[in-house]
Design goal:
heterodimer; A: 3% strand; disordered N terminus; B: alpha+beta; 8-stranded antiparallel sheet; 8 strands; 20% strand; elongated
Protein backbone atom coordinates (compact mmCIF):
# COMPACT_ATOMS: atom_id res chain seq x y z
CA UNK A 1 0.00 0.00 0.00
CA UNK A 2 1.22 3.45 -0.80
CA UNK A 3 0.69 6.53 1.31
CA UNK A 4 1.75 10.12 1.58
CA UNK A 5 0.11 13.27 2.89
CA UNK A 6 -0.81 15.97 0.43
CA UNK A 7 -2.60 19.06 1.63
CA UNK A 8 -4.78 17.17 4.06
CA UNK A 9 -5.30 14.27 1.71
CA UNK A 10 -4.27 10.82 2.79
CA UNK A 11 -2.99 9.58 -0.52
CA UNK A 12 -1.71 6.06 -1.03
CA UNK A 13 1.93 6.03 -2.08
CA UNK A 14 3.77 3.58 0.24
CA UNK A 15 4.31 -0.08 -0.59
CA UNK A 16 4.74 -2.48 2.35
CA UNK A 17 2.67 -5.54 1.38
CA UNK A 18 5.76 -7.73 1.27
CA UNK A 19 6.30 -7.37 5.02
CA UNK A 20 2.82 -6.81 6.38
CA UNK A 21 1.50 -10.32 5.74
CA UNK A 22 4.63 -11.83 7.26
CA UNK A 23 4.55 -9.60 10.31
CA UNK A 24 0.88 -10.35 10.84
CA UNK A 25 1.53 -14.09 10.45
CA UNK A 26 4.34 -13.95 12.99
CA UNK A 27 2.16 -11.93 15.37
CA UNK A 28 -0.63 -14.47 14.94
CA UNK A 29 1.54 -17.43 15.90
CA UNK A 30 2.95 -15.55 18.87
CA UNK A 31 -0.33 -14.23 20.23
CA UNK A 32 -2.89 -16.62 18.67
CA UNK A 33 -5.32 -13.73 18.78
CA UNK A 34 -6.17 -11.62 15.74
CA UNK A 35 -6.89 -8.36 17.60
CA UNK A 36 -3.68 -8.68 19.57
CA UNK A 37 -1.78 -9.54 16.40
CA UNK A 38 -3.05 -6.41 14.66
CA UNK A 39 -1.99 -4.27 17.61
CA UNK A 40 1.45 -5.90 17.63
CA UNK A 41 1.98 -5.16 13.95
CA UNK A 42 0.75 -1.59 14.29
CA UNK A 43 3.06 -0.97 17.24
CA UNK A 44 5.92 -2.59 15.33
CA UNK A 45 5.43 -0.26 12.39
CA UNK A 46 5.17 2.76 14.66
CA UNK A 47 8.43 1.89 16.41
CA UNK A 48 10.12 1.08 13.12
CA UNK A 49 9.20 4.49 11.78
CA UNK A 50 10.48 6.14 14.96
CA UNK A 51 13.74 4.18 14.94
CA UNK A 52 14.43 4.21 11.24
CA UNK A 53 17.62 6.25 11.57
CA UNK A 54 19.10 3.56 13.83
CA UNK A 55 18.98 0.99 11.07
CA UNK A 56 22.39 0.38 9.51
CA UNK A 57 22.52 -0.02 5.75
CA UNK A 58 23.82 -3.59 6.01
CA UNK A 59 21.04 -4.67 8.39
CA UNK A 60 18.31 -6.95 7.13
CA UNK A 61 15.20 -4.79 7.27
CA UNK A 62 13.00 -7.83 7.43
CA UNK A 63 14.66 -9.46 10.42
CA UNK A 64 14.88 -6.01 12.05
CA UNK A 65 11.10 -5.62 11.81
CA UNK A 66 10.52 -9.14 13.12
CA UNK A 67 12.89 -8.47 16.01
CA UNK A 68 10.97 -5.32 16.93
CA UNK A 69 7.71 -7.24 16.88
CA UNK A 70 9.10 -10.02 19.05
CA UNK A 71 10.52 -7.56 21.58
CA UNK A 72 7.18 -5.79 21.87
CA UNK A 73 5.46 -9.12 22.43
CA UNK A 74 7.99 -10.17 25.08
CA UNK A 75 7.62 -6.83 26.85
CA UNK A 76 3.87 -7.25 26.89
CA UNK A 77 4.26 -10.70 28.41
CA UNK A 78 6.56 -9.32 31.10
CA UNK A 79 4.12 -6.55 31.89
CA UNK A 80 1.38 -9.09 32.40
CA UNK A 81 3.74 -10.88 34.83
CA UNK A 82 2.03 -14.16 34.11
CA UNK A 83 2.00 -16.86 31.55
CA UNK A 84 0.58 -15.40 28.34
CA UNK A 85 -3.17 -15.44 28.19
CA UNK A 86 -3.53 -17.32 24.98
CA UNK A 87 -6.93 -17.38 23.40
CA UNK A 88 -7.06 -20.55 21.42
CA UNK A 89 -8.35 -20.47 17.91
CA UNK A 90 -11.11 -22.80 16.86
CA UNK A 91 -9.81 -26.26 16.18
CA UNK A 92 -10.19 -25.72 12.46
CA UNK A 93 -8.55 -22.32 12.59
CA UNK A 94 -11.57 -20.62 11.08
CA UNK A 95 -11.82 -16.91 11.46
CA UNK A 96 -8.10 -16.66 11.98
CA UNK A 97 -7.43 -14.35 9.10
CA UNK A 98 -8.63 -12.90 5.90
CA UNK A 99 -8.54 -15.17 2.87
CA UNK A 100 -5.09 -15.40 1.41
CA UNK A 101 -4.11 -14.65 -2.15
CA UNK A 102 -6.76 -15.09 -4.81
CA UNK A 103 -6.29 -17.41 -7.75
CA UNK A 104 -7.89 -17.95 -11.10
CA UNK A 105 -9.37 -21.38 -10.36
CA UNK A 106 -12.04 -21.19 -7.62
CA UNK A 107 -11.84 -24.93 -6.94
CA UNK A 108 -8.06 -24.84 -6.57
CA UNK A 109 -8.50 -21.79 -4.40
CA UNK A 110 -10.97 -23.67 -2.18
CA UNK A 111 -8.67 -26.70 -1.83
CA UNK A 112 -5.74 -24.45 -1.07
CA UNK A 113 -7.69 -22.68 1.65
CA UNK A 114 -8.77 -26.00 3.19
CA UNK A 115 -5.13 -27.12 3.25
CA UNK A 116 -4.04 -23.80 4.67
CA UNK A 117 -6.57 -24.02 7.48
CA UNK A 118 -5.35 -27.51 8.35
CA UNK A 119 -1.76 -26.30 8.45
CA UNK A 120 -2.65 -23.18 10.44
CA UNK A 121 -4.57 -25.26 12.98
CA UNK A 122 -1.71 -27.74 13.34
CA UNK A 123 0.90 -25.00 13.74
CA UNK A 124 -1.20 -23.27 16.38
CA UNK A 125 -1.19 -26.51 18.38
CA UNK A 126 2.60 -26.37 18.68
CA UNK A 127 4.38 -24.75 21.64
CA UNK A 128 5.23 -21.12 20.98
CA UNK A 129 8.96 -21.73 20.43
CA UNK A 130 8.10 -24.25 17.71
CA UNK A 131 5.41 -22.05 16.16
CA UNK A 132 7.69 -19.09 15.74
CA UNK A 133 10.62 -21.05 14.35
CA UNK A 134 8.37 -22.71 11.76
CA UNK A 135 7.05 -19.34 10.62
CA UNK A 136 10.41 -17.61 10.57
CA UNK A 137 12.14 -20.36 8.62
CA UNK A 138 9.48 -22.04 6.51
CA UNK A 139 7.30 -19.06 5.67
CA UNK A 140 9.55 -16.02 6.02
CA UNK A 141 12.69 -17.82 4.87
CA UNK A 142 14.97 -16.04 7.31
CA UNK A 143 18.42 -17.59 7.43
CA UNK A 144 19.54 -19.64 10.42
CA UNK A 145 21.88 -16.79 11.34
CA UNK A 146 19.07 -14.25 11.20
CA UNK A 147 16.79 -16.45 13.28
CA UNK A 148 19.59 -17.07 15.77
CA UNK A 149 20.09 -13.31 16.15
CA UNK A 150 16.36 -12.75 16.47
CA UNK A 151 15.87 -15.48 19.07
CA UNK A 152 19.21 -14.73 20.73
CA UNK A 153 20.41 -18.32 20.61
CA UNK A 154 23.17 -20.20 18.71
CA UNK A 155 22.47 -21.25 15.08
CA UNK A 156 22.86 -24.89 16.13
CA UNK A 157 19.97 -24.48 18.54
CA UNK A 158 17.88 -22.99 15.74
CA UNK A 159 18.53 -26.03 13.56
CA UNK A 160 17.79 -28.60 16.23
CA UNK A 161 14.68 -26.72 17.39
CA UNK A 162 13.47 -26.48 13.81
CA UNK A 163 13.98 -30.21 13.32
CA UNK A 164 11.95 -30.96 16.45
CA UNK A 165 9.27 -28.47 15.45
CA UNK A 166 8.94 -30.05 12.01
CA UNK A 167 8.78 -33.52 13.51
CA UNK A 168 5.98 -32.50 15.88
CA UNK A 169 4.16 -30.66 13.11
CA UNK A 170 4.33 -33.72 10.88
CA UNK A 171 2.71 -35.78 13.63
CA UNK A 172 -0.06 -33.24 14.12
CA UNK A 173 -0.77 -32.98 10.40
CA UNK A 174 -0.86 -36.77 10.09
CA UNK A 175 -3.28 -36.99 13.00
CA UNK A 176 -5.52 -34.32 11.48
CA UNK A 177 -5.41 -36.07 8.13
CA UNK A 178 -6.33 -39.40 9.73
CA UNK A 179 -9.13 -37.74 11.67
CA UNK A 180 -10.65 -36.08 8.60
CA UNK A 181 -10.42 -39.37 6.66
CA UNK A 182 -12.31 -41.25 9.35
CA UNK A 183 -14.96 -38.49 9.37
CA UNK A 184 -15.34 -38.85 5.62
CA UNK A 185 -15.70 -42.63 5.91
CA UNK A 186 -18.31 -42.18 8.61
CA UNK A 187 -20.23 -39.72 6.44
CA UNK A 188 -20.08 -42.07 3.46
CA UNK A 189 -21.39 -44.95 5.56
CA UNK A 190 -24.25 -42.79 6.82
CA UNK A 191 -25.14 -41.82 3.26
CA UNK A 192 -25.06 -45.46 2.12
CA UNK B 1 25.32 -40.56 17.70
CA UNK B 2 24.86 -43.36 15.17
CA UNK B 3 24.83 -42.87 11.40
CA UNK B 4 21.03 -42.57 11.16
CA UNK B 5 20.92 -39.90 13.88
CA UNK B 6 23.46 -37.89 11.91
CA UNK B 7 21.41 -38.24 8.75
CA UNK B 8 18.32 -36.93 10.51
CA UNK B 9 20.27 -33.89 11.65
CA UNK B 10 21.65 -33.32 8.17
CA UNK B 11 18.37 -33.77 6.32
CA UNK B 12 17.30 -30.14 6.69
CA UNK B 13 20.69 -28.95 5.48
CA UNK B 14 20.37 -31.31 2.52
CA UNK B 15 16.95 -29.86 1.67
CA UNK B 16 18.47 -26.38 1.91
CA UNK B 17 21.26 -27.45 -0.53
CA UNK B 18 23.71 -26.79 2.28
CA UNK B 19 25.59 -30.11 2.09
CA UNK B 20 28.68 -30.15 -0.10
CA UNK B 21 31.68 -32.31 -1.03
CA UNK B 22 32.38 -35.41 1.03
CA UNK B 23 29.57 -34.62 3.44
CA UNK B 24 27.05 -34.71 0.58
CA UNK B 25 28.48 -37.91 -0.86
CA UNK B 26 28.34 -39.63 2.53
CA UNK B 27 24.74 -38.49 2.98
CA UNK B 28 23.69 -39.90 -0.39
CA UNK B 29 25.58 -43.14 0.19
CA UNK B 30 23.81 -43.68 3.49
CA UNK B 31 20.41 -43.05 1.93
CA UNK B 32 21.03 -45.73 -0.66
CA UNK B 33 21.64 -48.30 2.04
CA UNK B 34 19.01 -47.23 4.60
CA UNK B 35 15.26 -47.45 3.98
CA UNK B 36 14.37 -45.62 7.20
CA UNK B 37 16.45 -42.57 6.35
CA UNK B 38 15.07 -42.51 2.80
CA UNK B 39 11.56 -42.56 4.25
CA UNK B 40 12.52 -39.79 6.64
CA UNK B 41 13.84 -37.66 3.79
CA UNK B 42 10.65 -38.20 1.79
CA UNK B 43 8.48 -37.23 4.74
CA UNK B 44 10.56 -34.06 5.24
CA UNK B 45 10.17 -33.23 1.55
CA UNK B 46 6.42 -33.78 1.77
CA UNK B 47 6.19 -31.50 4.80
CA UNK B 48 8.18 -28.78 3.03
CA UNK B 49 5.84 -29.03 0.07
CA UNK B 50 2.76 -28.82 2.30
CA UNK B 51 4.10 -25.76 4.07
CA UNK B 52 5.09 -24.13 0.81
CA UNK B 53 1.60 -24.67 -0.62
CA UNK B 54 -0.01 -23.10 2.42
CA UNK B 55 1.73 -19.75 1.89
CA UNK B 56 0.90 -17.19 2.95
CA UNK B 57 -0.08 -18.63 6.30
CA UNK B 58 -2.00 -15.47 7.20
CA UNK B 59 -2.92 -12.39 5.24
CA UNK B 60 -3.02 -9.02 6.95
CA UNK B 61 -6.63 -7.79 7.23
CA UNK B 62 -7.66 -4.65 5.37
CA UNK B 63 -8.29 -2.87 8.66
CA UNK B 64 -4.68 -3.46 9.69
CA UNK B 65 -3.42 -2.18 6.35
CA UNK B 66 -5.47 0.95 6.88
CA UNK B 67 -4.13 1.41 10.40
CA UNK B 68 -0.53 0.99 9.33
CA UNK B 69 -1.08 3.25 6.36
CA UNK B 70 -2.38 5.90 8.72
CA UNK B 71 0.80 5.58 10.78
CA UNK B 72 2.97 5.96 7.72
CA UNK B 73 1.18 9.13 6.74
CA UNK B 74 1.75 10.69 10.11
CA UNK B 75 5.39 9.66 10.30
CA UNK B 76 6.43 10.69 6.81
CA UNK B 77 9.42 13.03 6.85
CA UNK B 78 10.35 15.15 3.88
CA UNK B 79 13.77 14.99 2.25
CA UNK B 80 14.18 18.72 2.65
CA UNK B 81 13.72 18.48 6.42
CA UNK B 82 17.45 18.43 7.18
CA UNK B 83 19.94 15.57 7.12
CA UNK B 84 17.94 13.53 9.62
CA UNK B 85 14.82 13.87 7.55
CA UNK B 86 16.61 12.80 4.41
CA UNK B 87 18.10 9.76 6.11
CA UNK B 88 14.70 8.78 7.42
CA UNK B 89 13.06 9.15 4.05
CA UNK B 90 15.87 7.16 2.43
CA UNK B 91 15.50 4.44 5.04
CA UNK B 92 11.76 4.36 4.47
CA UNK B 93 12.31 3.67 0.81
CA UNK B 94 15.06 1.15 1.45
CA UNK B 95 13.23 -0.81 4.10
CA UNK B 96 9.69 -0.94 2.94
CA UNK B 97 10.02 0.13 -0.67
CA UNK B 98 7.80 3.08 0.29
CA UNK B 99 7.85 5.80 -2.31
CA UNK B 100 7.07 9.36 -1.46
CA UNK B 101 5.77 10.83 -4.64
CA UNK B 102 4.50 14.19 -3.50
CA UNK B 103 6.17 17.58 -3.76
CA UNK B 104 8.62 17.94 -0.90
CA UNK B 105 7.46 21.42 -0.02
CA UNK B 106 3.87 20.31 0.60
CA UNK B 107 5.05 17.37 2.68
CA UNK B 108 7.33 19.68 4.64
CA UNK B 109 4.47 22.00 5.49
CA UNK B 110 2.26 19.15 6.64
CA UNK B 111 5.00 17.42 8.62
CA UNK B 112 6.03 20.63 10.38
CA UNK B 113 2.43 20.96 11.44
CA UNK B 114 2.29 17.34 12.59
CA UNK B 115 5.58 16.98 14.46
CA UNK B 116 4.54 18.74 17.70
CA UNK B 117 1.51 16.51 18.17
CA UNK B 118 2.64 13.40 16.39
CA UNK B 119 0.99 10.92 18.74
CA UNK B 120 -2.28 12.81 18.64
CA UNK B 121 -2.20 12.88 14.87
CA UNK B 122 -1.41 9.17 14.68
CA UNK B 123 -4.53 8.47 16.72
CA UNK B 124 -6.56 10.90 14.62
CA UNK B 125 -5.43 9.18 11.43
CA UNK B 126 -6.42 5.86 12.97
CA UNK B 127 -9.96 7.18 13.47
CA UNK B 128 -10.10 8.39 9.85
CA UNK B 129 -8.80 5.03 8.60
CA UNK B 130 -11.32 3.12 10.73
CA UNK B 131 -14.18 5.32 9.50
CA UNK B 132 -13.14 4.72 5.88
CA UNK B 133 -12.74 0.97 6.36
CA UNK B 134 -16.14 0.81 8.07
CA UNK B 135 -17.71 2.81 5.24
CA UNK B 136 -16.22 0.37 2.74
CA UNK B 137 -17.88 -2.47 4.69
CA UNK B 138 -21.16 -0.51 4.66
CA UNK B 139 -21.00 -0.16 0.87
CA UNK B 140 -20.25 -3.87 0.54
CA UNK B 141 -23.13 -4.71 2.91
CA UNK B 142 -20.68 -6.44 5.24
CA UNK B 143 -21.70 -4.73 8.47
CA UNK B 144 -23.32 -6.67 11.26
CA UNK B 145 -27.12 -6.24 11.30
CA UNK B 146 -28.30 -3.31 13.36
CA UNK B 147 -31.52 -1.33 13.22
CA UNK B 148 -33.07 -0.25 9.94
CA UNK B 149 -35.12 2.85 10.56
CA UNK B 150 -35.56 6.42 9.35
CA UNK B 151 -36.55 7.60 12.80
CA UNK B 152 -33.83 9.49 14.74
CA UNK B 153 -35.66 8.76 17.98
CA UNK B 154 -35.82 5.01 17.30
CA UNK B 155 -32.13 4.88 16.41
CA UNK B 156 -31.19 6.91 19.47
CA UNK B 157 -33.18 4.51 21.64
CA UNK B 158 -31.57 1.49 19.96
CA UNK B 159 -28.05 2.75 20.71
CA UNK B 160 -28.93 3.47 24.34
CA UNK B 161 -27.05 1.04 26.58
CA UNK B 162 -25.19 -0.47 23.64
CA UNK B 163 -22.47 2.17 23.41
CA UNK B 164 -20.44 3.43 26.38
CA UNK B 165 -21.43 7.07 25.83
CA UNK B 166 -24.55 9.21 25.63
CA UNK B 167 -25.59 9.70 22.05
CA UNK B 168 -28.69 11.47 20.78
CA UNK B 169 -29.33 11.72 17.07
CA UNK B 170 -30.85 15.12 16.25
CA UNK B 171 -34.01 15.29 14.16
CA UNK B 172 -33.45 16.73 10.66
CA UNK B 173 -34.59 20.35 10.56
CA UNK B 174 -35.75 20.93 7.02
CA UNK B 175 -36.71 24.29 5.61
CA UNK B 176 -40.54 24.32 5.50
CA UNK B 177 -41.79 22.98 2.21
CA UNK B 178 -38.51 21.32 1.26
CA UNK B 179 -37.30 17.79 1.89
CA UNK B 180 -33.80 16.92 3.08
CA UNK B 181 -31.45 15.69 0.36
CA UNK B 182 -30.44 12.75 2.50
CA UNK B 183 -32.46 10.28 4.48
CA UNK B 184 -31.63 8.31 7.59
CA UNK B 185 -31.51 4.55 6.96
CA UNK B 186 -30.38 2.98 10.21
CA UNK B 187 -27.64 2.32 12.72
CA UNK B 188 -25.36 -0.47 13.84
CA UNK B 189 -22.45 -1.14 16.16
CA UNK B 190 -18.83 -1.28 15.04
CA UNK B 191 -15.63 -1.91 16.93
CA UNK B 192 -13.17 0.87 17.60
CA UNK B 193 -10.17 0.16 19.83
CA UNK B 194 -11.93 -2.85 21.29
CA UNK B 195 -15.14 -1.14 22.38
CA UNK B 196 -18.43 -0.50 20.57
CA UNK B 197 -18.89 2.68 18.58
CA UNK B 198 -22.04 3.84 16.81
CA UNK B 199 -22.39 3.86 13.05
CA UNK B 200 -25.33 5.79 11.64
CA UNK B 201 -26.13 5.34 7.95
CA UNK B 202 -27.75 7.71 5.48
CA UNK B 203 -28.52 7.74 1.78
CA UNK B 204 -28.87 10.43 -0.80
CA UNK B 205 -30.27 9.81 -4.25
CA UNK B 206 -26.83 8.82 -5.55
CA UNK B 207 -24.63 8.17 -2.56
CA UNK B 208 -24.40 6.32 0.72
CA UNK B 209 -23.11 8.15 3.77
CA UNK B 210 -21.96 6.80 7.12
CA UNK B 211 -21.35 8.59 10.39
CA UNK B 212 -19.03 6.97 12.91
CA UNK B 213 -19.56 8.21 16.46
CA UNK B 214 -17.42 7.47 19.48
CA UNK B 215 -16.50 9.15 22.72
CA UNK B 216 -13.79 11.79 22.24
CA UNK B 217 -12.02 10.11 25.16
CA UNK B 218 -11.08 7.22 22.87
CA UNK B 219 -11.35 8.77 19.40
CA UNK B 220 -9.07 11.68 18.54
CA UNK B 221 -9.92 14.25 15.89
CA UNK B 222 -7.11 16.30 14.31
CA UNK B 223 -5.23 17.05 11.10
CA UNK B 224 -6.47 17.34 7.55
CA UNK B 225 -7.77 20.59 6.09
CA UNK B 226 -9.25 22.45 9.03
CA UNK B 227 -12.34 24.62 8.58
CA UNK B 228 -14.00 26.48 11.43
CA UNK B 229 -17.74 26.96 11.60
CA UNK B 230 -19.04 28.62 14.74
CA UNK B 231 -17.61 26.73 17.71
CA UNK B 232 -16.83 23.66 15.66
CA UNK B 233 -13.69 22.80 13.72
CA UNK B 234 -14.12 20.37 10.84
CA UNK B 235 -11.19 18.30 9.54
CA UNK B 236 -11.37 17.31 5.89
CA UNK B 237 -9.55 14.33 4.39
CA UNK B 238 -9.60 12.54 1.08
CA UNK B 239 -8.84 9.01 2.15
CA UNK B 240 -8.86 5.81 0.15
CA UNK B 241 -11.25 7.31 -2.41
CA UNK B 242 -13.64 8.72 0.21
CA UNK B 243 -14.26 12.17 1.63
CA UNK B 244 -13.93 11.95 5.42
CA UNK B 245 -14.96 14.84 7.66
CA UNK B 246 -14.22 14.64 11.37
CA UNK B 247 -15.17 16.91 14.25
CA UNK B 248 -15.90 16.81 17.97
CA UNK B 249 -18.88 18.18 19.80
CA UNK B 250 -20.15 17.70 23.37
CA UNK B 251 -17.62 14.98 24.16
CA UNK B 252 -18.24 12.93 21.04
CA UNK B 253 -15.99 12.43 18.01
CA UNK B 254 -17.69 12.20 14.62
CA UNK B 255 -16.36 10.91 11.30
CA UNK B 256 -18.65 11.39 8.32
CA UNK B 257 -17.70 9.38 5.25
CA UNK B 258 -19.09 9.75 1.74
CA UNK B 259 -18.04 9.95 -1.88
CA UNK B 260 -19.06 13.59 -2.09
CA UNK B 261 -16.21 15.66 -3.47
CA UNK B 262 -15.51 19.38 -3.65
CA UNK B 263 -14.39 22.02 -1.15
CA UNK B 264 -15.55 21.97 2.45
CA UNK B 265 -18.58 24.27 2.22
CA UNK B 266 -19.77 22.78 -1.04
CA UNK B 267 -19.59 19.20 0.21
CA UNK B 268 -21.55 20.11 3.37
CA UNK B 269 -24.17 21.87 1.28
CA UNK B 270 -24.81 18.74 -0.73
CA UNK B 271 -26.72 17.42 2.26
CA UNK B 272 -27.61 20.66 4.03
CA UNK B 273 -28.90 22.63 1.00
CA UNK B 274 -32.53 22.30 2.09
CA UNK B 275 -31.83 22.41 5.79
CA UNK B 276 -32.53 25.16 8.26
CA UNK B 277 -28.83 25.37 9.09
CA UNK B 278 -27.61 25.76 5.49
CA UNK B 279 -26.43 29.33 6.11
CA UNK B 280 -23.76 27.90 8.43
CA UNK B 281 -22.17 26.13 5.49
CA UNK B 282 -22.61 28.79 2.80
CA UNK B 283 -19.92 30.85 4.50
CA UNK B 284 -17.35 28.05 4.46
CA UNK B 285 -14.57 28.05 1.85
Amino acid sequence: MNLAPVNGELRQTLDFGEYLDGLYGYAMVLSRNSAEAEDLVQETCLRALRGMNGLRSNDSAKSWLFTILRNIWLNQLRQRRTVPELIELDADGSGASEPADSRQDPHADYLSEVDREQVRAAIQQLPVEFREIIVLREYEELSYQEIAALLQCPPGTVMSRLARARSKLRELLAARSKSSQSHEKGANRAEA
Amino acid sequence: MNACDEIVVKTLRYLDNDLHGQELEDFRAHLQSCDDCRDHLESEKALSLTLHRSRPLYSAPATLRDRVSALAIQRSVPESHGIFGKRLADALRRILSWRILVPATVVLALCLALVPNIERNVQAASYVATAAATHRSYLAANLQPGLQSNSPEAITAWFSGKVPFEFQLPAAQSTPGENPVYRLTGGTLVDYKGSPAALVTYETEKDKISLLVDSSRSAVVAGGDEVRSGKLTFHYFNYSGFRVITWTNHGLAYALVSSVSGPAGASCLVCHQNMADRSNFQTLP
